[in-house]
Amino acid sequence: MRGRIAEVGIVAILVVSALLGSACASEQPTSASSGTRGPASALQPIPPTALPGRPADPIDLNADSVAVDAVDVAGLQTLLDEAGYVGGTQRQFSRVRGGRRRMLARVLSFETPRGAAAYVAWLRDHADEVIGDAAPNAGLRVPRNGVVLVHEPNPCCHNETRMFLAMWHEGSTVVTIQIAGEGARESDVPDLLARLDAAV
After folding, report:
1. For burial by CB atoms within 10 Å, which of 20, 74, 96, 153 has the most?
2. Contact, 151 vs 163, CB < 8 A?
3. Distance, C-alpha 86 to centroid of its chain
4. CA 194, CA 144: separation in Å to the nearest integer?
């Protein structure tokens, strides 16, 4: 009988200990709550209504995703690391009516404004790796003293179309947009840039 009482006592002690342990554990911060720090607002998906056309699903961009833009992938990875790249997001918008047009919008976040400026400088100097030979178009207005680079199609290549690459940054956030296709018209660019800027 005494053995039976001892067993019941041991079980009761284990149950109470387990309950106390779970209660203490619930008071500790979880990794989910501690992992929300940092510039999360810059990484919110670009709204599907930011630009006209059919929106694709948003895509998160780590440093490897951005670095594939470069011919020297390792070199751009190093620059992103030194610039304090945090993360980014992109969304593509496309249309067929009125001339085929594809737009790829990105928002990239860096630890500091200096890091954001370093990436914009790289992109401006290496635009040929992204859209081909390109030149700045001073006549197009860009938010926050950004720049629009234009790639003109080779007359000998019938499949090539005009492409625009715009970039600007505010603080530690960089915004870029590529506009391509037979429906990519210079007259539409200022409005598209203004719409994207207002949306992000």
Report:
1. 153
2. yes
3. 10
4. 11
- For residue 181 the two structure tokens come to 């296709």
Looking at domain 41-199, which of 3.20.20.70, 3.40.50.2300, 3.10.290.10, 3.40.1000.70 is its CATH number?
Answer: 3.40.1000.70
pLDDT tens-digit profile of 5-59? 444 444 444 443 444 444 333 333 332 322 222 333 347 999 999 999 999 999 9
Token representation of residue 37: 């720090």
DSSP the chain: -HHHHHHHHHHHHHHHHHHHHHHHHHTSPPHHHHTT-SSGGGGSPPPTTSSSSEEPPPEEE-HHHHHTTSSSHHHHHHHHHHTTEEEEEEEEEEE-TTS-EEEEEEEEEESSHHHHHHHHHHHHHTTHHHHSS-EE-TTS--GGG-EEEEEPPPTT-TT---EEEEEEEETTEEEEEEEESTT--GGGHHHHHHHHHHH-
Determine the Cα–Cα distance for residues 184 and 145; give it in Å rounded to an integer.
Answer: 22
